[in-house]
Structure formats: structure tokens, C-alpha cells
Amino acid sequence: MILSLTARAQSEQPSFHYRALLSAFLCILLSLLFSAVAHAHGVADGDKGYIQEISGTHLLPFTYLGAKHMVTGYDHLLFLAGVIFFLYRLKDIAIYVSLFAIGHSLTMLYGVYAGVNVNAYLIDAIIGLSVVYKALDNLGAYQRWFGIQPNTKIATLVFGLFHGFGLAAKIQEYEIAREGLLPNLLAFNVGVEIGQLLALGAILIAMGFWRRTPAFLKYAYTTNVALMCAGFVLVGYQLTGFFVS
Q1: Is pLDDT at 109 greater than 60 in this prediction?
Q2: CA 33 → CA 29, 39, 84, 118, 132, distances in Å?
Q3: Cα(226)–Cα(29) distance, rounded to whole angstroms?
Q4: CA pseudo-torsion sign 65, 203, 158, 231
């Protein structure tokens, strides 16, 4: 569908130029926005101090932290927004979200429990690339450039694995006690899923209203270009942090 929209947009030159300008404006706006809020997606000092002072099993605090991390995790949410952008059936949404959840749960639990220390900047850069990948997929770029359509389910699972290592890197910033580690991690993962469901619910409601209007198809191309720009901004920010640190 997006291919025909792109072809139609290119045949309507004034409209196409307007969308290109709108895409460029959104890219600049997102660059400024993400450069301002990029520091927010980390471990709050208050949360970190509290977790470092406690030991043993604390299910509710870790569930809250997991939900809070996901709700404020704009990189994860951008990827999920891209995944469900052209999904209309709840069955398909459930399949893709489940694959993503399985992927990030496995690597999050393994990463923390085994003490795998992966550089957070590099992992977050890969997460930014996952946003770029999904936006290009929605734009039909792989079919036009390479004549192939990657398996989106496998891609969602694989990027879910990377997102899990990103979560593991954030959790290890808490420096949590080993006592009660496994139940606390499971509680954190439950919180992540709760936060994911809450955020996805809000996104689906907003998109549900948007899809009922002609503006959805009219601006689907522009929105995915802006999504791609946001992914590149995240990659650039994280790589800059990696080399500076």
C-alpha cells in the first residue's frame, strides 16, 4: 500500500514537494526534541538510590520500575509504533508484540542474571537502528532497493533480543543486590510488559482515530520518514556518547 502511495505522491509533484518539506521539518523538530530528552531515558537518581539501599525480594518496587522504564522508553515505543503502524487486526498485533516481548525478556533476564556487560551506548544505537529499519520497511524500501521483503516477524524477534540487552544494561545501572535477584528481575519484566501494554493501548487508541480519517493515508509516508529520522537521531546521539565516553 505504501508503495502505491509513494508512486502517487511522486506523480503529484506539488503535493510531493509539500510532503518532502513537511518531512524535513519533522526531522528537524524530532532532532531538537530527542537531543533535549535523550538524557531522560535512564535511571533516575532517586530510583537508583532506593534500589541500591534495599536487598531481598521487592516485587512491587521492581514492577513499578519496569513499567516506568517502558513508558518513558521512547526508543522502544518508536519501534513498536513502527511495528503496528500498518497492522489492523488484533491477532497480528498480538503476534508481533509477543515476539518482541519474548525477545527482550530472554536477553534482559540472561543479561542481568549472567552479568553480561554490554556497552549501553552501542546497544541503544542498535535500538535506534531498529527504528530506522522498521520505518524503511513501512516505506517499502527493501522491495524497491533489493527486490526482497525481509521476514518482519523474525526481524521483530531479533530486535526484541537487542532491546532486552538494552534493558539489561539499564537494570545493571541500579547495582541491585544478588539476594532476591531472580524474583526481582521477573517483577521488573512484568512491569515492562504492563508498561508496554499501557503505552501500546494509548498508541492504538490514537491511531484508531487517525486511521478513520483521510489524513492517515495522506501522511503515512511523511510519518514514516519522520520515524526514520528519529531513529537516525537516536543512533547519532548514542554513537556520539560512545566515542565521547
Answers
A1: yes
A2: 6, 11, 23, 27, 17
A3: 9
A4: negative
